[in-house]
Amino acid sequence: MDRTIDVLHGVNLDQLGRRDPAHYGTQTLADLEDAVVGFGRDLGVGTRFFQSNHEGALVEHLHGLRGTSGGILINPGAWTHYAWALHDALEITGVPAVEVHLSDVTHRDAWRQVSVVRDVCIGTVSGQGVEGYRAALELLLAHPA
Ligand code: DQA
């Protein structure tokens, strides 16, 4: 396992398990992270995790990943739809990233259909729940580190 993938969760993702199960299922963030550890093991990579409800903390975390990360899976939560600082931080970081959403953001409210990080990511996976993180990891690993 010489490649380690950073799995980043933004605002309100720490509340999984209490959010609308129709969109987000019933699993907690800890359950999700356990599943992602398993997906990484299956695919031969290590995984490490970070979640914050503070945009600046996520921005600073991204800055620190420059040159040290083998790839990023990022679910920014609602920041996806308006947080241009995250767009810029992903660009500065210069690490290949895949955007992932548990729910199908393309068929929800109009404001959720906008993503300000999409153009600095190599791909997007949405609407596949926890399994979507496996698909996102596969997409990332198809891309050179
Ligand atoms: C989300 C979708 C966002 O619109 C929402 O604000 C979230 C979670 C998802 O995983 O489906 O918090 O990113």
Tell me the structural class: alpha/beta
- What's the CATH topology label? Rossmann fold
Distance between the termini: 13 Å
What is the approximate shape?
A: globular
Question: What does this protein structure show overall?
Answer:
There is one protein chain. This protein is α/β, with parallel strands linked by helices and 145 residues long. The chain has one domain: Dehydroquinase, class II (Rossmann fold). Helices cover 35% and strands 20% of the residues. It contains 5 helices and 5 strands; from the N terminus they run E-H-H-E-H-E-H-E-E-H. The protein has helices at residues 21-24, 29-43, 55-65, 84-93, 131-141; strands at residues 4-11, 46-51, 72-77, 97-101, 123-126. Strands 2-1-3-4-5 form a 5-stranded parallel beta sheet, with helices on both faces. Helix 2 (29-43) packs parallel to helix 5 and helix 3 (55-65) packs parallel to helix 4. The longest helix is centred in the first third of the chain and has 15 residues, at 29-43. The chain is globular, with a radius of gyration of 14 Å. The model has no long low-confidence stretch (mean pLDDT 97). 1,3,4-trihydroxy-5-OXO-cyclohexanecarboxylic acid binds next to strand 3. Residues 12, 75, 77-78, 80, 101-103, 105, 112 line the site of 1,3,4-trihydroxy-5-OXO-cyclohexanecarboxylic acid.
